Amino acid sequence: MASVGPSAASSQPALPSGPAVFKTIPYAFILPEIVCGTWVWILVAATSVSLPLLQGWVMYVSLTSCIISLLLLLSYLLGFHKNSENWKVLDSLYHGATAILYMSAAVLQANATIHSEFNSDGPTNYQLNSAASFFAFLTTFLYIFHAFSIYYQ
């Protein structure tokens, strides 16, 4: 009789809990995502919003994703996942969808930056919008890296 090998679930790496979250590659991206996303929100809020529809979407995406990512980080730190495979799927889907939303927000913020260059608001507004665009694209790539590293894990 042939022996049965280990199950497929046990060969998968365990989901981290507690401080191990910051040492595991896909999950270590959560804190930089929160920090960069917070910078996007702060920098857009500091400008004189000349295009409220565009920059409103940027603020909505950045604030919402920061809050949800913070809740996800807290759930990993507190071990709410109980090493369930469903959390990997949830994490991958969330970060993939958020990467798409953040890409749209980053493009809209870049458009607002281009428009602020020609406004009479001064160079400070343009510099703040430029920094917000940079952090929006950086946050987009962090979400993309996180989603793909979960997927290929």
TrEMBL record:
Please tell me whether the keyword Transmembrane helix is annotated for this protein.
yes
A Pfam match is MARVEL
Domain MARVEL, first and last residues per copy: 21-153
Question: What does UniProt give as GO cellular component?
Answer: membrane
Q: Which domain of life is it from?
A: Eukaryota
Stored InterPro entries: MAL, Marvel, MARVEL-CKLF_proteins
What's a single GO BP term from this record? myelination
Please state the protein's primary subcellular location. Answer: membrane
Cellular compartments annotated = Membrane
Q: How does it sit in the membrane?
A: Multi-pass membrane protein
Q: Which GO terms describe its molecular function?
A: structural constituent of myelin sheath
TM region(s), chain numbering: 27-51, 57-80, 92-112, 132-152
Q: Which keywords does this chain's UniProt record carry?
A: Membrane, Transmembrane, Transmembrane helix
Identify this protein by name: MALL protein
Q: Which organism is it from?
A: Myiagra hebetior
Q: What is the lineage of its organism?
A: Eukaryota, Metazoa, Chordata, Craniata, Vertebrata
The gene designation is Mall
